[in-house]
Queue: 2 jobs
Job 1
Amino acid sequence: MNPPASISRAHTSALVLFSGGQDSTTCLAQALSKYQRVETIAFEYGQRHRVELDARLNVLRELESQFPAWSEKLGQDHLLDLAVLGQVSDCSLTRDVAFKMESSGLPNTFVPGRNLLFLTLAAALAYRRDLQVLVTGVCETDFSGYPDCRDDTMKAMQLALSLGMDKRFLIETPLMWIDKADTWALAHSLGEQSGLPHGGQALVDLIVEHTHTCYLGDRTHRHDWGYGCGECPACELRARGYERFVKAGS
Ligand code: ZN
């Protein structure tokens, strides 16, 4: 008996939600190691720091120049204007207010439903570009507790988007159950498998140097783990993960 059409064809193409941070860069590397055709998407919504948008272009350029096997698979990059998000949110990512924890227990970087919007728009683009898999770096393991990063939310979105667009989408979340130290280790092993000599270290170095995570947009302070203020929750998480990753490897 032939398998149903939806699973008879292996997935060969992906759209990666790519912000230029450590997590989404690792997701992009994984997609490039798995799929034949990979495109990237990001959203501009008045982020406080242009550095994030610059970082993603630098990461794409470095991946292309340093990893020839991946470069052939890397297709179009899409940047969608989502300025409307600034009209419905009042949070520290889009306004000039200090980062803090809210009484809800969520950090004030939280924009309600942001990932739901991102995935919906990504799926619409993937539909038009005929891309099968949506890859996102959401994670339940570390810190944030954003409800729209939960595994259940992703599964519900996969179903809603597949039904609503009458196309079988797969939402892939390679980081869902791993912590930041494991994310560094995953990048290292993906680099190793890329065919490039010392590719593991090359990918880790690329992520350290070119990705951006710091909530304050600090590109002046350089640490072992990359640039950042060193004190905001994103920097702390990245630094602690890197430290454990290095310790585990030595
Ligand atoms: Zn920081």
Job 2
Amino acid sequence: MILTTGSAGFIGSNFVLDWFAQSDEPVINLDKLTYAGNLENLASLKDNPNHIFVQGDIGDKALVAKLLALHRPRAIVNFAAESHVDRSIHGPEDFIQTNVVGTFHLLEVVRAYWSGLSDAEMTNFRFLHVSTDEVYGSLAKSEPAFTENHRYEPNSPYSASKAASDHLVRAYHHTYGLPVLTTNCSNNYGPYHFPEKLIPLMIVNALAGRSLPVYGDGQQIRDWLYVKDHCSAIRCALEKGKPGEVYNIGGWNEKANLDIVHTVCRLLDELQPRSDGKPYREQIAFVADRPGHDRRYAIDARKIERELGWKPSETFETGIRKTVQWYLDNQTWVNNVLSGSYRQWIEKNYAERA
Ligand code: NAD
Ligand code: DAU
């Protein structure tokens, strides 16, 4: 049995769905169900007795200790986090609370559980911490992609909180010997992506006839990975990764934001043309930039390929087509997500950028 945290969110729910597509090893899924957590993502597991969902906070030490004692997992995969950079700019508190304090509490409880295991169980145990390329800061156009040895230079409250959690995870290995793995991944996209993030926001806004807000000049570069490739990389690191090691995960797909928006528009023109026959790109609107906006991220994913044999299986072209089609096929999911609190966020983030 393994315990995952934050697996009612975007990447975690894809991870659990993919897990059960290949295995019947039980998963305890601990998720606080913040605005980003959505049990609809896991609806297909409703009757699966091997999926045990528990609503709760990674920072709730008593609850986590109880779950560990009861279920005795062989591994923890920590997805739980506040994940949206713009929200961290409007209100950093929750990011510090979950990403830093929450991870610290989780590590403390896991350490106590792990030190009570038998020698063999202790050796085989893993704590996999899911982190981000944003901890490395921003690259100039000519600089090489981030390797695992790149210095930490986080620039947003979000990335600073993730960097802090990475350091804690590292320290628990060096100080206490906890068998940890850290993965630092680039931008994900795919099914169940909450439409506050660039790609799903553009799809949802385009179809609703709203403007497509591009921050600044739209020339910021991100390195995109289809979410299911991220999930396979995490499974690979969990099974083959060396405790204490860090693995960068990326798709070798550096794209400027404006190119991403153009691609989404082109696919929608083909798959669901506007009723007036005009192209969706007419809806693009350049708006005020994100404060402290990182210009470029790029991941050098050669270590995980060389040492663990992982490679992405989707190209950006295949992955983005699947993603746009998924949103077209899952309008009910989209409509249910666009709740009152979602509308409040959109109002808050975009009103002042106009
Ligand atoms: P998300 O915001 O979609 O989901 C986060 C999940 O964590 C939600 O289900 C939420 O309810 C849960 N959660 C939040 N606080 C919690 C708490 N205190 N206790 C328990 N559960 C809590 O995020 P995501 O995009 O799926 O990202 C998952 C992880 O992957 C994060 O750690 C993020 O930093 C990392 N990551 C994301 C990306 C990306 O492109 N989305 C890329 C690299 C790394
Ligand atoms: O790099 C990994 C990170 O990718 C993860 O750690 C984060 O959890 C995840 O949210 C993502 O962060 P970004 O800030 O890169 O993702 P976002 O989708 O918010 O923005 C992608 C780019 O698009 C970024 O340069 C900002 C820009 N953008 C975003 C939105 C929401 C726009 O131009 N307009 C928008 O409306």
